[in-house]
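Lecture 7 notes: from sequence to structure.

We start with a single chain of 589 residues. Read the sequence below before looking at the structure.
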Amino acid sequence: MYLFATFQFLVSFINVQIIINNTEMQNILIVDDRDQNLVALEKVLKRSDLNIIKARSGNDTLAMVLEHDFALVLLDVQMPDMDGYETAKLLRENRETSHIPIIFVTAINKEKRHIFKGYKSGAVDYLFKPIDEEILNSKVSVFLELNRQKKLIEDQATLMLEQAQFDALTKLPNRTLFTDRLNHALGESKRNNHKLAILFLDLDRFKNVNDTLGHDVGDLLLKEAAERLENCVRSSDTVARMGGDEFTIILTCDPTSRSCSIVAKKIINAIYQPFYLNGMECSVSASIGISMSPSDGNNVETLMKNADVAMYQAKSAGRNNYQFYSPSMNVKALERLTLESDLRNALERNDLILHYQPQIDINTRKIIGSEVLVRWNHISRGLVYPNDFIPFAEETGIITQIDYNVIRSACNQNNLWQKMGLPPLSMAVNISAKQFRQKNLVELISTFLNESGISSKCLVLELTESSIMENADIAVTMMKKLKEMHVNLAIDDFGIGYSSLNMLKYLPIDKLKIDRSFVQDVTCNASDAAIVTAIISMAHGLGLKVIAEGVETNEQFEFLRSLNCDVVQGFLFSKPVVADEFRELIVMD
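Now the structure, written as tokens:
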């Protein structure tokens, strides 16, 4: 009675809901040296959620518990080779089996000394023969449910551990687990006097995918990229996602520069292959930085920092390549940080100034507009030209703010000139691919035009072929919205990109701008002359105007005029000048 009352209190205390039907199968071990007792127990316990396994001795029991996962052991006391007390004691002393609850099922009398001996050997309860079927099934049900709850808690703990150590999207180790593994690998490499290598990888222009195709497609790309990375390394190596589109890899087994190069090339080739996501083809590339221990550092922080520095060097070298870390890169990294800080400060202080290069009607030789070019009036370096800071601005994302400032300032300057009595002029402004993908571009252009008060027909947005063809469908949609506002659109540097000539008839553009590289040798190179002739003829056939840039000689000018080119610009007429000098050019024209 005492034991049964204790059992009832346990049930009420833990508020266990006993679920017998529709639950997963659990194992229970029944141990008795007599077959008739095993059959009787099995008959009493027969139920859908229970898998009964039988043993006939203590030794059999010890073997069985190592082969199966048991929710409960029903153990006889009196057995020939090893009694139940000794068996239970051995089960408790073994780390792998100490958690399994044991209920003694015995014909020994109910003397307290036997009961206490049973508890002392590790049993959680006692049942006496002949067995009360109702009590047996109730107790078994409780321990089965306790086991289910235990497994549920363990599963939740495992899930929490996975969430803490693994990236939810790619299922790769996250920064926390990567750091732990790198620390362990460093310890092993020091003890064995071996090298290890860190690869820091970034997907080039991945933000373009999110901006143009959406984050769902971006997530699919990251998952597939993670699979490709794992296929490029050995199972002993670690691939981790640090966040965003950044991945890291630990190469162990005493890697050499050559073996690291082989892996890096393999990764670059794998990532460069097209991704097919939701019926769309998408392409990215990878830039990889490599640091090695102990030469490039012997702790996590230093190795990661140096691999990161090398990765940015790979981006600076044109992307889609890998670079090994060298100490000189730290100098470049510092210069990079300084340049970024200076450029952001320049935006705040309005140190970016606009220059205007006249655009000339080829027949009248009159100024009809200008191309707006940005310069940086650096506080210590003086005038900095676009080639020295625009690529960096595009890489860091600062280009978007620069584009905003240029468009707004150009519109305001045009309005100011008109108030001074100058005729309305077209203002051609280059717009970056990053800016062109901004969803609020049309609204911002409308705001700038309204603020300045100039006609939208005075604004020309110059787009590169690559920014249009990167995602032609989205580009055409954006261009149509701008055309609805009567903003003029031009393709800049035409001929050096990769646009399809057939695509031109579908683009809502007004002008083509021939790149200066073709104009430069147009009078002495038959191929350049043929290309320029073909571009002008094709453009006019499509109803487009043609602008030739980089005109520096009268011979070039006359050649272009003979082909009925519409507009020219170049040093033959004027270099880019500040606003006041441009106004004087208009007045004298």
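Residues 133-165 form the longest helix (33 residues). Keep this in mind for problem set 3.
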